[in-house]
Amino acid sequence: MGGGPSTDEHLLIVLPFDEPTEQIQRIQKKHPDIHITYRKLTYAVVPWKNDAIPPEVFNSATILATLSALPPNPADCPHLELVHFFSAGTDHVQQSPIYRDTDITLTTSTGIHGPQIAEWVVMTTMSHTHHMKTLLQWQKDKKWGSHRDLGGVRDMVGQRLGILGYGSIGRQVARVAQAMGMDVVAYTASPRSTPESKKDHGYIVPGTGDPDGLIPSAWYHGLSKSSLHHFLRQNIDILLISVPLTEETTHFLGKEEFDILGKSRNTFIANISRGQILHQEELIAALKKSPEEGGLRGAALDVTDPEPLPEESELWHMENVIVTPHASGVGTAYVDRAFQVLELNLTRKERGEKLINVVDRKRGY
Fold first, then answer.
1. Of 102, 95, 115, which Cα lies nearest the Cα of 76?
2. What is the three-class DSSP state of 248?
3. What is the pLDDT of residues 330-360, one digit of tens each?
4. What span, in angstroms and rounded, lies between the C-alpha atoms of 156 and 87?
5. Angle between the N-to-C axes of helices 114-129 and 168-179, in degrees from 0 to 180, rounded to the nearest 10
6. Three-class SS string for 177-212?
7. Contact between 228 and 115 (Cβ < 8 Å)
8. DSSP secondary structure string, 291-342?
9. Mean pLDDT calculated for residue range 303-331
């Protein structure tokens, strides 16, 4: 991925919304030698099995920017050098031929979701703590209720936030939590034993996150059950699940883990990763237990297994559960920030520099 700017560079942008002219004009101004083609393509069940884009369009592309749409066959894109995804993860395309059968560089938009998802985590956690379901029902019923009927409200000061997966989202949640007086402990797959290893080398929204990894009071790591259990025993009041979905993290948390969390602090769980990280039925069982029985005090779930969550799921009706439809990352700045990551990598590519947010196929993210 090197050399200078090429007059043969062709950027194909395939996204499920109207053409973002402002961002495309910005790219064209910075990179006048790049030919840009935009195609609007609605979501597909299998995004690499969609014939809405003629093969000849993929044929000349050297860079593809997409949410999920991919060429059905590597032979359809002989000049493709880089695919940039407008998503933070790539689990939705890991069975595609482009992912499995080529060494085409893949990059993601990880880093752009931190601000809005951190706000969702704080909103849902505090909604539970401050009994917002009850308060909103009182408002609907025009009832001036008594605070004695609400029960206690414990603020965040002094509580411990455990972050399972200390990436860009976890780092912004940590930043906000620290400002609220919380202690933060982090868990990562691999060790972060040096100052350099604790840094965030991906895209960072200016003024956010934990670029140098200085917020956690302690770091833990590993993919084994023993390593995970050691982390979960650290008196965690709120557990944020923000690990990527991989083979190793599928059903990473189940009855054993919920028992540890429930018996130690009646932990509140917030999941913004993927529903498959949890054994969902075992989570429901842990949420049904009382605090005295070692149950979890509540959960905020932006992701479920499956999605959409079936109407008959108990999660819809549980008083200590907040369910949202995979919407925590939605925000008005989403598209522009995703383009900022792409623009940064276009500049780095032209200069022959190392790209950011590159996917490691072996690790799955």
1. 102
2. coil
3. 999 999 999 999 999 999 999 999 999 999 9
4. 31
5. 50
6. HHHCCCEEEEEECCCCCCCCCCCCCCCCCCCCCCCC
7. no
8. GGGT---EEEES--SSSSPPTT-GGGG-TTEEE-SS-TT--TTHHHHHHHHH
9. 97
Question: Is it true that the peptide bond before 306 is cis, omega within 30 degrees of 0?
Answer: yes
**For residue 74, what are its two tokens?**
């590597």
Q: CB count, 10 Å around CB of 112?
A: 30
| 43 — pLDDT class (breaks 50, 70, 90) | confident
Q: Please work out, in degrees rounded to the nearest 5, the angle formed at the alpha carbon of residue 339 by the alpha carbons of 175 and 120.
A: 35
Residue 186 in tokens: 């982090």
Distance CA 63, CA 84 (A): 8
* Average pLDDT for 18-27: 97
**What is the DSSP code (8-state) at residue 354?**
P
Which of 174, 176, 175, 180 shows the shortest CA–CA distance to 162?
174
**Alpha-carbon distance 248 to 224, whole Å?**
9
CA–CA gap between residue 295 and residue 164 (Å, rounded): 20
Instruction: Return the structure tokens found at 30.
Output: 């910075």
Residue 328 confidence (pLDDT): 97
- The residue behind tokens 């790209």 is 355
- DSSP structure class, residue 156: S
Q: What are phi and psi of 7, to 5 degrees?
A: -75, -10
Distances (CA, A) of 128 to 315, 319, 320: 15, 9, 7
Is the separation of the CB atoms in 128 and 322 below 8 Å? Answer: yes
Q: What angle do CA 60, 81, 109 make, to 5 degrees?
A: 110
Most distant CA atoms of the chain, gap in Å: 71
Q: What is the pLDDT of residues 264-302, one digit of tens each?
A: 999 999 999 999 999 999 999 999 999 999 999 999 999
Q: What is the DSSP track for 275-286?
A: GGGB-HHHHHHH
Query: What is the C-alpha to C-alpha distance for residues 212 and 206, in angstroms, rounded to an integer?
Result: 13
Do residues 301 and 327 lie in contact, with contact meaning Cβ atoms separated by under 8 Å?
Answer: no
53 φ, ψ (degrees, to nearest 5) = -105, 120
DSSP state at residue 110: T
| CA quadruple 63, 65, 69, 71: dihedral, nearest 10 | 0
